[in-house]
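Lab manual, section 2.4: Encoding a predicted structure.

Procedure: take the sequence of the chain (491 residues), apply the prediction step described in section 2.3, and record the output as structure tokens. A sample record is shown.
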Amino acid sequence: MNQFLPPLADTLYDIAIIGAGITGCAAAFELSKTGARIALIDRDGDVAAGATRANSGIVHAGYDPLPGTKMARYNVEGNALIHHYAGELNLPFRETGSLVLALADGDIAVLQELYRRGLDNGVPGLRLLSAGQARTLEPSLSPEVQGALYAPSAGVVGPWEMALAFAQTAVVNGADFLPCCEVTGIRRDGDGFLLSTTRGKLRARRVVNATGAHADTVNDLAAPSRLRIRPNKGQYYLLDKSQGNLVHTVIFQCPSAAGKGVLVAPTAHGNLIVGPDAQDVPDPDDTSTTADGLAFVAEQVHRSIPGLSLRDSIRNFAGVRAVCEEEDFVIEESAACPGLITLGGIKSPGLTSAPAIAKACVELLKKSGLPLEPRKDFRLYPLPVRFRDLSPEGRAAMARKNPLYGRIICRCETITEGEIVDAVHSPIPARSVDGVKRRAGAGMGRCQGGFCSPRVAAILAREWNVPLTEIEQDHPGSRLLMGWTKDPGRA
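Recorded output:
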């Protein structure tokens, strides 16, 4: 629906944030607490349309990063902030705790090292468990388990809902979200910057680069090469809710150079997620899945949970990590290009760290000379309560108030037409079928939209007052229908 977006206004923004993934959305949220004029820009048609939507949703406790690193600091701070924001913004969040399993000779020593790191990093409540204690917590664990590290502060969150809640709060506090707006050039413009985009020119006093696996490319538009991203793909299985209670905590294997290993975890929505693998890929947009990659995930997860059946998988997907040549997050103002703030190399635990990274971003902007006074009228914009979560009396009251809430569109997830219409008219409106999915949940169930997608598309066309052929699945250009196979006016 790119053609329905207006050209950019001739506005001088204080801050242009490039990238509307979890890091960019968190930065917009934090900056909207000030009086700054903010543009949140993304090349895609929605927030959280890249790596954020393909995230495992784990809220890491913070024992894995090396003490003294930015990862260690922002992981623990971000974990505490997510616990806080979960209530304020009505985020789908569960404090599940996590277990790291010792499955092989030498793994107990790794757990002890992670325990020491966790204590140094300030992770609360860490405990080393015997094999018996671990299986008491999770009876489905492999008999090969020799011990475990337990972190009670870990949890799971809906990654795209968290990004959306941050971004929509920013918008209701005056920020502009500019979708389908790929930045193609950045150059100095007086004391600020002039950005060339696919929707026109945009001026800003400061620029924040939060573009994930593209952070090096965007940096190079404005400054000498500073970082190099090595895209690394991870593939997952998403299991039906019938498997959601197989485990109750996030189950990790001991980390290695390839990452934190294949995990199995409940999701914030009641499913079970399994993965990922780790494959370097040349294309940062390569989210394809492969038989070999998924076979590796299946083999590895059975080391942790031998009885897990992948026959109840309802979807496979992949995301691309922004692995940087540096081992730590790159969070800094460019020395060669003052006013350009880089939030780069944000791989795991990037989702957890995002709220804390956002606060660091504000401080960097202040140090750059940008006055950021607190906004006196700042207000939160919590996510709506789901119809399915209401009491029978609450559901009946909503349906009486608006009959659209009495019409179920997504049977798997019990999502009503009223909720879909609300998603279309929210501060950052849903423009695609998957945009509705991220906001209202329609299409997330066992049939993965097989039943409800045509109905969602029809509602989108009606509410946007456009032909059904203009409705997209998700990314710009992903149209569901190209035209009529026969003249609809003929019998």
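Check your result against the sample. The chain has twelve helices and 22 strands.
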